[in-house]
Amino acid sequence: MASKTNRAVMEPEVEKNGTSSNELHLNLYKMLVKCRMCDEKARILFRQGKYKGNFYSGVGQEATSVGTAFSLKKDDWIAPSHRDWTSNVIKGAPLKFCFAQLFAKTTSPDRGRSSPAHMGYPELHVITPASSIAGQLNIGTGVALGIKKLRRNDVVVSYFGDGATSFGGFHEALNFAGVHKLPIIYVCQNNLWAESVPLRLQTALTNLSDRAKAYGFPGVSLDGNNVLEVYDAAQKAIARARGGQGPTLLECKTYRWYGHSEIDPAKYRVKEEVDAWKKKDPVATFEKQLIEKKLLTDAKKKQIADEITQEINEAVEFAEQSPYPDASELADHIWAQ
Amino acid sequence: MARTINMLEAINEALSQEMERDERVFILGEDIGLSGGVFKVTDGLLDKFGEARVLDTPLAEGIIIAAAIGSSMMGLRPVPEIQFADFITPAVEQIVQQASKLRYRSAGGYSCPVTIRVCCGAGGGSGLYHSQENATWFVHEPGLKVVMPSTAYDAKGMLLAAIRDPDPVIFFEHKSLYRQAKNEVPEGDYTVPIGPAVVRREGRDLTILTYGFMTQKSLDAAEQMARKGVEAEVVEIRTLAPIDKSTILDSVRKTSKALIVHEDKKTMGYGAELAAILSEEAFDDLDGPIMRVTGPDVPAIPFSPNLDKAWQVNTEKIVAGIEKLAAY
After folding, report:
1. CATH number of the domain that residue A249 is part of
2. Is the separation of the CB atoms in B176 and B213 below 8 Å?
3. CB distance from B80 to chain A under 8 Å?
C-alpha cells in the first residue's frame, strides 16, 4: 500500500532487541519458544479437527525465521512461503489473529480467504502469499524495487526452500535484484527435502549459496539451527540492503521435524536422519547455552513457557469464538469497488 | 485542441503526459528505453524522463510483471510492457496467480494497480509467434480488467483511465492499428472510461458484436451490405472484461440478431461467452441463431502469405456472415 513519507524513520527497537547482548539473546530465546509453541499448537489443533485444509509446520526451522526477522522494523517487509505462518508472529502480529487465520474466521487478516498457513498481515507488511513456489520471492523483489525507487531504507526478507531454487522464477527474481542492487535478503531454508524430493535430485549443488555468484551478489551458507549465527549474518545482510549495496542470499541449512504438511507422514525419510537433526534442536541447544551462561534458569524457562501458553490459549479461544465469514461475502474484494 | 494522430502516437502521448502528471508512474519492459520500443511506441521517453522512470529490463517476462506488481504495492504506478502477446505466457503465473488474486486473497489488504501493455494480433505477415491475440485467456480471470481499443482517441483515453485504475488492467494494443488507426485526439488530458462498449454504426437488421482490429473491418462490411439494403448495427466491445452487457443486450433486443466477429480462434473465443450471455438473457428477443465469424481453430497464423491470408478474418468473410444471418 502507499507510503506517504519519503524517508523512513529508523525506530529504535530497544524494547524488542535489547540494549545489551544478554537481553538480545534472551529475547531471541523467547521468540524461538513462542514460534515453537505456536507451531506445535497449530499442529495439535489440526489433528483435533479444529480446522480444515492443511498445515505446513516449521518446527525444527525456527532459528532460520527468528534469526533473520527478529530485528526488522515495522515498515520492513516479509515475503513468506507456505511454511512461514510463524513469521507473522515474529513480525508482531497478535496471536489471536494468527489463530483466527488457521480457523479461517472473519477475524483473520484475509477474512478466511487464504489457506490456514498462507497468512499475510498488511499492517505489518507481511505479504499474503499465493501457494506458487517462488511466488512471493518474485513479488518481494518487486516491493524492493519500489522501496528503492521511493528512496526509502526499508528492506524485504524473502523466505523459500531448497525446491524453490530450481524454479525459473527464482532465477529471474535474483537476477533482476542483482542488476538493480535491490534491498532484499533472500533466505533459503534448505531443509534437504522439497516435499519428498531429496536435495540430490533437486540440484547438483551441495551449497545453495553458490547460486548467488550467478547473480553478482554474496551468498552465505549458515548453520540454520544456530540462531546467533543466523542473526549475525542477517544483520550484515540487512545493513547491506539498507545501505544500498544490494541483495544477499542466506542459505540456512536446517531440517523440518515433521512432514511437508500435516497429512504427509514423510515415510520417504529415515528415522536416523530425523533423530540426528532433532539432536540439533535450535530451541533446545540455544536454551542449553543460555542456562550455561546463567542467563536462563529453570524457573525463568518455566515462566516464559507459562506466559506463552496463556497467550496461546487466549488466542485460540478468541479464534474459536470468532464467526465464520458469511456466504454473502464470496464475491467481495475482487475489484476496488 | 485536437489533431489527427495515429494510435502509436496517442499511446506515446498518454504515457508521456501521465508520467509528467504523476511522478509515481514509470514504465518497464524489454527494449522500451534505449530503443524506444520495437514499434517505437515508447520513443523519446527515456530522453525525457531518464532511467529512473524508463527501465530496460532483463529478458524475463515473469519478473517484469512481478516487479510491477510488487512496486505497485509500495504505491507506485508501473506500466510494464509485454513486447508481443505471444510472449505473455511466461508472465501468466504472475498475472493469473498474483495480480488477479492479490486483492481477493487478502480481502482488500493488498492491491496492485498495474497496467500491463501488450502488443497483439495479426499484421505484417509476422508468423506464428508474433501474431497471437490471446486476450480471452485473461477475460476468464476475475480480478483483471481487459481492454482493447480500436481508435487512437480511445487508446489515449483508455490508457490514461487504466493507469489511474486501482485494479490491474491488461491493455491490448493491436499491432495493425498502431499506424492504421488515425483519429482526432485532444492534446490535453481526458479519459475514456473502462467498461462501456460503444455503438459505432446504427442499424436495424442485425447487430455485429466485435472488438479490436475487426471493428473497422466490420464497419466496412456493414457499408457494403448497406448497398444491398441490409443495415447492420456495429457495437465495439472496447472493454472485454468486465463486460458491458447493457449496451450489448440493448442492441440485440433492438435488431433481434447477433453476429459476433473476432480475429482470435473460434473455440472458447470471446464469441462463445457472448453467445452464452445472449442465449441466457435475450432468448425471447432473438429471431435467428447467434452466429460467429472468427479465426479458425488452427494453432497460429503460419508464415507463408497464402496461409496467412487464409487464416485471417477479412471483410469478405464478414460480409458472407451478415448475408447468411440477414437471410434467416
Report:
1. 3.40.50.970
2. yes
3. no
Residue A9 lies in a domain: no
**What is the C-alpha to C-alpha distance for residues B254 and B250, in angstroms, rounded to an integer?**
6
B76 → closest Cβ in A111, A146, A335: A146
Let me know whether B232 and B302 are in one domain.
yes
**Is residue A302 in a domain?**
yes
**Distance (Å, rounded) from C-alpha B221 to C-alpha B87?**
32
Chain A residue at shortest CA distance from B242? A335
For chain B, the domain total comes to 2
Contact check, Cβ <8 Å, B70/A169: no
Residues 6+ apart with CB under 8 A from A226: A63, A282, A285, A286
Mind listing the pLDDT tens digit for each residue in A118-175?
A: 999 999 999 999 999 999 999 999 999 999 999 999 999 999 999 999 999 999 999 9
Q: Which domain holds residue B76?
A: 2-186
Rounded Cα distance, B291 and B324, in Å: 9
pLDDT 10s per residue in chain B (328 long)?
Answer: 899 999 999 999 999 999 999 999 999 999 999 999 999 999 999 999 999 999 999 999 999 999 999 999 999 999 999 999 999 999 999 999 999 999 999 999 999 999 999 999 999 889 999 999 999 999 999 999 999 999 999 999 999 999 999 999 999 999 999 999 999 999 999 999 999 999 999 999 999 999 999 999 999 999 999 999 999 999 999 999 999 999 999 999 999 999 999 999 999 999 999 999 999 999 999 999 999 999 999 999 999 999 999 999 999 999 999 999 999 9
Residue A268: all three cell numbers together: 520417504
Is B102 at the interface with chain A, CB within 8 A?
A: yes
Do the Cβ atoms of B73 and A149 come within 8 Å? no
Whether B90 and B31 map to the same domain: the answer is: yes
Distance CA B73, CA A172 (A): 19
- Domain extent, residue A201, equals 18-318
Per the structure, the count of domains in chain A is 1
The C-alpha cell of B251 is what? 442492441
**Nearest-CA distance from A127 to chain B in Å?**
8
Residues of B in contact with A139 (CB under 8 A): 66, 69-70, 73, 98
Residue B67 inside a domain? The answer is: yes
B128, B155, B186 - which closes a domain: B186
Last residue of a domain, one of B130, B157, B186: B186
Q: Do B202 and B318 reside in the same domain of the chain?
A: yes
State pTM to two decimals.
0.95
Dihedral of alpha carbons B261, B267, B273, B278, sign: positive
Contact list, B97 vs chain A (CB under 8 Å)? 130, 132, 135
Cβ contact, residue pair B73, A172, below 8 Å: no
* ipTM for the whole predicted complex goes beyond 0.90: yes
Question: Among candidates A255, A184, A254, A182, which has minimal Cα distance to A221?
Answer: A254
